[in-house]
TrEMBL record:
Keyword Lyase: yes
Tree of life domain: Bacteria
Signal peptide: none
Name the record gives this protein: Putative amidohydrolase
Amidohydrolase-related domain sequence ranges: 66-266
Keywords, alphabetical: Hydrolase, Lyase, Plasmid
A GO MF term: carboxy-lyase activity
Amino acid sequence: MDIVDAQVHFNLLGSLESGMAAMDAAGVNALLYDEYWSFDSQNRILPGYELPGGAFRQVFPLAEEAALRYPERFAYLVRFDRHDPELDALIATIRTMPQRKALRIVPWTPEGFHQFAEGADEPIFAAAQRHGVPVFVLLPGRTRLLHRYLHAFPDVPVIVDHCGVTLAPGRLHDDRVSGFDDVLALAQFPNVALKWSHAPRLSAGDYPYADVLAMLLRVVAAFGPQRVMWGSDHTQSKDHHSWAESLYYIRDTPELSDEEKGWILGRSLRSVLQWPAPSGASFGTP
């Protein structure tokens, strides 16, 4: 089975070689690289630099290196400031630079969520629609804020990050707290997919995370496996569970068919990103 991880801050694993060794040990064939070093004093994600007008331009040197050296194993996403004077041209690069596949919006702060709710990121969505670019959006417990964008930009492939729920340990089983019903309601929009990452951290129990798996089955019933993609978020979750555990509770469950697992664990992400598996690749069975 082609296992493709939709969420790893791969640079936090150390050298490229040590990170790839960890991938191999977990049984991950390829991954979407989200380069993240830290936040600066203004809650801007590093690395990057401030432009003369005050906009912050992020750069992705380690993700680019990995993707250029090992294109069969790495694709990467990017983030751009809505105020960047070259926003449209930057978003256009997602369809022209090797293995640069998607855009990510991370409001993160209360002010950022408020601005997103007011439509501040419409220029990003408009450019993404012009250039056919998928957009990942992190809105934990606030997925209702997406509706105005989904109605305005129906041709943008939108992927909801981190299950769409409040990122609080042991809370996924509580629909009221997590906002899970709002997440399921997004299935009505055919251009929306859900990234099932970070999920084991939300479990009230231990591996194999029965409550998390029960919620995943509801997600698959609502969206279909073609619009659900697995991500480990390993660098942010390794204090709670291993990379392998984040994968195997899905890979080994009898509650999902092999075809459903194939979509969730790799094919869905490849389809959305237009990232085909390497020619002639042969993958093991689950």
